[in-house]
Amino acid sequence: MNKEQRWFVIVNPTAGVNRAGKRWPKISEMLTQAGLEHDHGFTQRRGHGAVMARNAIREGYRKIITIGGDGTNNEVMNGVLKQKVVPSNEITYSIIPVGTGNDWIKTHKIPKNTKKVIALIKAGKTSYQDIGLVTYDEEGTEKKRYFMNVAGMSYDAFVAKVSHERRNFVTNQLFYFYLIFSCLWKFVPRKARIIYDGKVVEDEFYTINIGICRYSGGGMQFVPHAVPDDGLFALTMAQNMPKWRVITATPRFYTGNIESHPKVSVAQVKSIKVEDMGGKPTLVEVDGEFLGGTPVEFSILEKALKIIVP
Questions:
Q1: Contacts 24+ apart (CB under 8 A), 47-52
Q2: Each residue of 195-233: pLDDT tens digit?
Q3: What's residue 36's pLDDT?
Q4: How many Å separate Cα 209 from the centre of its chain?
Q5: Which domains does the chain have, with CATH numbers?
Q6: 159 Cα distance to chain centroid
Q7: How many Cβ atoms are within 10 Å of 117's Cβ, its own excluded?
Q8: Which residue, 81, 103, 100, 84, is CA-closest to 12?
Q9: Strands 141-147 and 191-196, how do they pair?
Q10: Cα dihedral across residues 232, 227, 293, 277: positive or negative
Q11: Cβ-count burial of 35 within 10 angstroms (0-12 exposed, 13-18 middle, 19+ buried)?
Q12: Percentage of residues in the chain with pLDDT exceeding 90?
């Protein structure tokens, strides 16, 4: 069987508190039993998943499976998008989720159960979803990153930054949930200018979310109006508010009715720019990965990724 017909599996052995590495022999056996011929490699450092994806495509593979969580998912997808060998939507992509949050799969209703997701991969039904491209500042250098789920600015990015700094301690969803609330008392909102589709909004923002898919932060719905293949970003802007109001609004983050809050406004837009107004940057993260800060610009690539779906 040539490489175009074989799957290349990228395994993050540390995902899910080292569960992925421990489970790989059994997962490999299940893939073989399902008739899914495959080769594999293990990520060794942060960012390695992108390198492995680019190399696999260069070597002739056209089918890629990620074993890990949302962070590994983002890395591998960036490798698929950044390679120049074939158009990104000619690569068939899937994930066997073994992470902590597993937020991206929720929009597409991809099961967490390994046996069920392998059955989906074997069935081979595919769809296409949009991909976001963010241009941002990192210590004075302009950089770019693709994302496939949700980007967060202001408070969301502040939490992601703290989470990154405590990467060895954030080992489960319960601790991350604790982190979300403990950071609230340290967070200082920044005034920002948001420019989208000819409109300009200037304010102090508690959070700004830009979504392709609906779920982030372990099941929260800051962008419940997101549609993954409509060519638009779902934009949610929450003005600064007292901390007690943030806490009382928390149930709305999970129920999908955040837009009914008086301090929240939503839109569906083609492109977004965010600029700082007070000399201090507004931070940005994508798919849970902290990046940097303003100036930030978002653009969308329509149907740029072909994915396995139920």
A1: 47/75, 48/75, 49/10, 49/12, 49/75, 49/76, 49/78, 49/79, 50/75, 50/76, 50/78, 50/79, 50/82, 51/79, 52/10, 52/76, 52/79
A2: 999 899 999 999 999 999 999 988 889 999 999 999 999
A3: 97
A4: 12
A5: 7-124 (3.40.50.10330), 132-302 (2.60.200.40)
A6: 15
A7: 22
A8: 100
A9: unpaired
A10: positive
A11: exposed
A12: 70
Beta-sheet pairing, 92-97 with 289-308: parallel
Q: CA-to-CA distance for 21 and 15, rounded, in angstroms?
A: 8
pTM for this prediction: 0.92
